[in-house]
Design goal:
There is one protein chain. With 276 residues, the chain is of the alpha+beta class. It is built from 5 helices and 18 strands. The strands form 3 sheets. The protein has a 9-stranded antiparallel beta sheet with strand order 6-2-3-4-18-17-16-10-14. A 5-stranded antiparallel beta sheet has the order 5-1-7-8-9, covered by helices on one side. Strand 8 and strand 9 form a beta hairpin. Helix 4 packs across helix 5. The chain is elongated and about 60 Å long.
């Protein structure tokens, strides 16, 4: 028999969603959790989580509504800020308790503007209730990357790219990326106090699925700002790299969930300015 009081109470929520397996969501959020604060955008297409660092780096993960078993939004759009680190910790709270073959379900509720985002995490009859404080969204950068300004685009098989980049000097201060229609085609140069080294990937490499270059371009980035992108390569199945004429670098990651659905993550990074 349906509990009418509970059904009526649920209609008062602006947003509610149900996920049968929290591991369809938690690894993606963990991969972009390089800063605490995140902006959450919710519309009828799904949920978008945006993280920024120093107005130079921005990562956004789009989780489509088809990933959820239930997805109800009773307004046009919701936008709020929360502590992503706390959210990731809550979603991982039962990770070490899971037995073989068991899954952890997630229910999310957001009642009204300014209210907390409520997470109900359930596994084997054990329910953990988490309440995440929300606040007004802070202003974020609107990176403009029109296709007509796209000088170069390369799509890699992420597993191959991960192996190629495994030799990168982790003590590097900066990474320079060169893309050209001519050899060496794609070059990554790392610069540290002690040395400089480079990795070349030809356009004919088995790691490359698509290579498009209209004009040579070279830009330099802080290694610390690219580290989160390298972590995302490790969990993606395909990685696209685009650079525009200003040197704005855009990674796009296709990440397959444990249920074989796809989540897309975009990572943008501004280049270092050459003072010389």
């Amino acid at each position: 028999m349906m509990n009418t009081s509970n059904a009526s109470q649920r209609l008062n929520y602006l947003f509610e969603a149900k996920l049968d397996n929290v591991k369809n969501l938690s690894p993606v959020l963990k991969a972009i959790n390089f800063k605490d604060n995140a902006i959450i955008f919710i519309n009828d297409k799904g949920l978008k989580v945006v993280v920024e660092d120093s107005k130079c780096v921005q990562a956004s993960a789009f989780v489509g509504e088809d990933l959820f078993q239930e997805f109800h939004l009773r307004t046009d759009q919701l936008v709020f800020c929360l502590d992503l680190t706390v959210m990731v910790e809550c979603l991982s709270i039962l990770d070490n308790c899971s037995g073989a073959g068991t899954t952890t379900a997630l229910n999310m509720y957001y009642k009204s503007i300014g209210s907390p985002l409520k997470l109900l995490i359930e596994e084997g009859g054990i329910i953990t209730d988490c309440s995440l404080k929300t606040k007004d969204a802070i202003e974020i950068l609107d990176f403009d990357f029109p296709v007509e300004n796209e000088l170069n685009k390369i799509i890699f098989r992420a597993s191959d790219l991960k192996e190629i980049l495994s030799d990168i000097d982790t003590n590097s201060e900066s990474i320079e990326i060169l893309v050209s229609p001519n050899p060496p085609y794609f070059r990554i140069t790392t610069n540290s106090v002690t040395n400089q080294c480079y990795i070349d990937i030809p356009n004919s490499s088995e790691a490359v699925e698509i290579f498009s270059s209209k004009s040579p371009i070279s830009a330099k980035y802080k290694y610390t700002q690219l580290k989160p992108a390298l972590r995302l390569i490790a969990v993606s199945s395909k990685t696209s790299i685009r650079i525009n004429e200003e040197g704005l670098l855009c990674f796009q990651f296709m990440i397959k969930t444990v249920s074989k659905l796809v989540v897309y993550v975009e990572y943008l990074c501004t280049p270092l300015v050459d003072d010389g």
